Amino acid sequence: MSVTKVRRPLYFLRIFCTFFLLISFVLTSSMILFLTYINQSTGLELTQQNIGLAALMTFGNVFMLSLVCALADMLRRYLTIERPIRRIAEGAENIMAGDFSTRIVSVKGFDSVDGFNEIIDCFNRMAEELGGMETLRTDFIANVSHELKTPLAVIQNYATMLQQPGITDEERKEYGQTIGNASRRLADMITNILKLNKLENQQIYPDKRKYDLSEQLCECLLAFENAWEAKELEIETDIEDGVMVESDPELLSLVWNNLFSNAIKFTEPGGTVSLALHSEGDHAVIAVSDTGCGISSEVGEHIFEKFYQGDTSHATQGNGLGLALVKRVVDIVGGEITVSSEVGVGSTFTVKLRRTRA
Fold it and tell me: What is the pTM of this model?
């Protein structure tokens, strides 16, 4: 027997006694006042028999009124309290059991259930968000497993080939370089996963200070000089001097390095990579453009998602975490990032940050 079934008779008895005592007090007081008024006004004396009959009828009325009120209160309580509470409790148990598809039907009844309907609406939104997070978590684990297997398989295969007798020095060098590249990719991916995990769980907090954004962009771009020279890329810059921001330079360096790396990676040899910085009111606007393969509108909608790679031909050069890191960092420092692109023409990533006066 459930606790609710045990408590219900006790609750009904308590409510009945409460109404009985209240109605008895009210009717008794009213009867005393009425009889006193009749006696004083008319001088009529009531016999004990009449008083006894009136008391019996009054008791019967009090009993019936108390019973009706107690039943009405039980019905009110069931419709306005117990039913919505039971639905919410059952929904919470389903959520605890891992069923994030659970939704609670709104209660229709008296106006007093509106408060419960607000709770039910919040519960349903919470279940929807948890369901989305669970889907993302499942996808994230699946993607991590897949991304880890790829470089590990390369390392295992080439390590096995290195053990074969009769391979030439040139082949040994080639196999070793392949293993080294796969190992670096694996290490970079694990590093990015750890960084992204800390950022998403807000374990990294911005260490804000005022500094020259123009100088930082130049330094980050120059760090890729060997990469753009190897592909014979043309670098165009339009950087406004003395643009100051108050933010975390270490976090923002992740943004610039990832954007520059992607621009160079997706631009064919002989292409152009552009960097622009200018002030717009209270904001600093940074644009990183390339003349690479570009992305479609469908890919653009998912470009900042973890492990998403729109161009699979360059999959071996990255792990799909760079732009997810960029988006998270920009959100943390209170900025905005957008992308505009055209397939076969190129892409432009635009970051907007609040600047400070020099």
Answer: 0.51
